[in-house]
Amino acid sequence: MEIIEKVKSADKMAVKLLQKSKDGYLCETVVVDYYNKNIICFSCALGCPVGCKMCYNGVYKNFIRNLNADEIVAQIKNAMAFIDPKKVTLFSAMGVGEPLLNYENVAKAFIALNTEFSGNKFAMATTLPSSKNLEEFLSMIRDVEKFKIMISLHAPTTALRYKIIPIKTAVKKLVNDSIKISKKFNRECEFNYLLFDKFNDSKEHAVKLAKLIPDEYVIKINHFNHVQGVELKPSTNYDGFISTLKQLNKKVEEYSTNGEDIGAACGQLCSNKKLD
Ligand code: SF4
Q1: pTM exceeds 0.90, yes or no
Q2: How far is the CA of 52 from the centre of ligand 1 (A)?
């Protein structure tokens, strides 16, 4: 992987790196200087086959191939030149690609990074296309202790989730499987929920979500950004939704992504263009 371009956001908190693979494809990586930590948000594939409706790669169905472990490690090591060395770094598989569809390479990369940069943290956002793959992935990374699973839930019912994430698993099973596996491997698990305008952001949705997630687990409310070609729009009801969850004794964290102005925020990354 070779960095061919870097773009900094206006608030200077995010840098988007365009990296070129040996076979000539562009891969995007984001480095965020996030208050008390660095976040390296890396891609694990060139494009993505899943087809989520809230993401550029899902809407344009642009899958080329998975990245191998060496490419993932090289992508992240290149990004290390842009971190603040005084802070802990979170290596997060939240860029392009579903990590569990490439879990062997992602696991190998995490193991290599944990050996070289111990003391840092690791995370993976997954739509959970397969519980079996999550279990195998976690059994591979047993020595990567500071690892967190982030389940991309984004809807409180199976039917609503299926409208934006084409995976048929019932949401109750998805939540139960994630919790069971995270307990078995003693790993943190939290549930990500992007709020979309008039889609999943009503009081009724919040009440259903509260019933689905046990009180001890964090529900992370992520701010959605406008993504080219995506019909879903950012919610205007963050405060109301969060306040309902809190009244129902839920643990809620709110996260607004950085780098919207440089196409580096949630759902905006794209890694599949071939260079001449
Ligand atoms: S949200 Fe993630 S899994 Fe879904 S299409 Fe986009 S990159 Fe793939």
Answers
A1: yes
A2: 5
